[in-house]
Amino acid sequence: MRGKVYLVGAGFGGPEHLTLKALRVLEAAEVVLHDRLVHPGVLALAKGEKVFVGKEGYGERTSQEAITERLVALAREGKVVARLKGGDPMVFGRGGEEALALKRAGIPFEVVPGVTSAVGALSALGFPLTFRGLSRSFAVATGHDPRLPLPLADTLVLLMPLHALEGLKARLLERYPPDTPLALLARVGWPGEEVRLGRVRDLPGLGAGLPSPVLLVVGEVVGLYEELR
Questions:
Q1: Transferase as a keyword (predicted)?
Q2: Which of 83, 97, 170, 180 could covalently link to 176 via disulfide, CB atoms 3.0 to 4.6 Å apart?
Q3: Which one of the listed residues 35, 79, 85, 88 is annotated catalytic?
Q4: pLDDT tens, 174-218?
Q5: Which is the catalytic residue, given 50, 55, 154, 202?
Q6: Is 55 a catalytic site residue?
Q7: Is the pLDDT assigned to residue 47 strictly greater than 60?
Q8: Are both 4-115 and 118-228 of the same fold?
């Protein structure tokens, strides 16, 4: 008997941002393979065996190949498996790679979307990504490698920027004036949540001492935050 793998988005922060379908899968799964950025409150809802397959910061990690092999092996044992990821599995979660590997191995799978922090965390805090007259476009990119070019948009959201803020400042100044508003959002939906407001010129110092995970949002809409909160 073949099992099935669910690629599940845990959303950002605690279980209040979990979808009903994700909750049903967590309650039914026999094994849950989870990443570091899954909130403990979400993990507590899982009924089956919980296996950590993420990484701790820039230290030890489980290779993507090992994760995929384990998913395939468990499914071939007839297990119902939840591959649980923070945010949405298809947004910087390597869900596409895992889905392709499962398809090629002949393993039934299903994607259960989650609320990505790149949108949900900003909305929850009162940061509009779009606003008539200020922002008609937004882009989301990883921020861990400042050598990569940044997308062009009125509002820019960068994930994982904390260790590259100095290099990102130079990149941002290629696209935005130095007085463009920005915000660093740390641990949204977790204990220790923090919001720091500033300008492009305030990097990298604005990020000093912030705990991860962090989002960086840049654009004129950031200037609305204090009025909207």
A1: yes
A2: 180
A3: 35
A4: 999 999 999 999 999 999 999 999 999 999 999 999 999 999 999
A5: 55
A6: yes
A7: yes
A8: no
As a whole number of angstroms, the distance between CA 50 and CA 56 comes to 17
Q: Which residues of 159-193 are buried (b: 16+ CB within 10 A; e: fewer)?
A: bbbbbbbebbbebbeeebeeebbbbbbbbbbbeee
Topology, domain 4-115? Cobalt-precorrin-4 Transmethylase; domain 1 (3.40.1010)
Region 118-228: CATH code: 3.30.950.10
Q: How far apart (Å, rounded) are the C-alpha atoms in residues 97 and 90?
A: 9
Longest C-alpha distance within the chain, in Å? 61
Locate the domains of the chain by residue range: 4-115, 118-228
CA distances from 202 to 60, 182, 198, 205 (A): 32, 9, 6, 6
Length of the chain: 229
**Could you give the strand order of the β-sheet that contains 109-112, starting from the edge strand earlier in sequence?**
49-52, 31-34, 80-85, 4-9, 109-112
Taking only the tens place, the pLDDT of each residue in 182-191 is 999 999 999 9
Cβ-contact 140, 159 below 8 angstroms: yes
Judge whether 35 counts as a catalytic residue.
yes
Angle at 89 between CA 110 and CA 209, to 5 degrees: 160
